[in-house]
Write a structure and sequence with these properties.
Length: 76
Amino acid sequence: DQGYVTSHGDHYHYYNGKVPYDALFSEELLMKDPNYQLKDADIVNEVKGGYIIKVDGKYYVYLKDAAHADNVRTKD
């Protein structure tokens, strides 16, 4: 709850603080549960196009509009 990790080539970096508003996200982090309903209590912070949410102890990116996922990247 006090920082985030970024992928950089073959290794990772840890940063303190909130995820930057304009961060890029791996598609693996998207909330894909079709039954999930956004709750204010789940929101950790707002990012471009959506929110970082915490559900059942795990973090996800919740997009406001999946058609505008400009900051989401595929794993490849």
